[in-house]
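QA checklist item 7 of 12: single-chain prediction sanity check.
[x] sequence parsed
[x] length recorded as 163
[x] structure emitted
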Amino acid sequence: MKTLLTSLMLTVSLPVLAGQPDLLSVKQIGLELARDIAMAAVEDCRKQGYNVSAVVLDRAGNVQVALRDTLAARHTLEIAERKAGMAVMSGSDTGEFRDARADIRPELNHIDGLIVMEGGIPIQAGGSMIGAIGVSGAPGGDKDRLCAAAALKKVEERLEFAQ
């Protein structure tokens, strides 16, 4: 009976397994684009008189670029990275996520690499999330978010035509 059950399970699962590819092609943010996004965020905040850090993560949540403006507090790097991590994890703007999921905010803030604060935005290209940007250091997450959004707007054409 055990052999029959095992054979039946294999027969049912083999077509499902056979349909899965051995290799996957994914879109990944490149160093140059990540650098340009991070620098554009820092520059936009500078114009407004804010010293910030900007961190761009790839789609897996790995740091691709981390920039700290000369006078930005050292902790802004970690906070920016955690904001970007939240954007990767949720796939959404961190301020919108915070407002929609206040019920789990305290728990998420205790997970390494995440913080539920405004200032993190996913980076989309060609219909795929390729990473996220987090900004920290302006007087309020709303201002951090505006700098991140301005940076994405600056490279919008590059993101729209990404293959």
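[x] summary fact logged: The mean pLDDT is 91.
[ ] second reviewer sign-off
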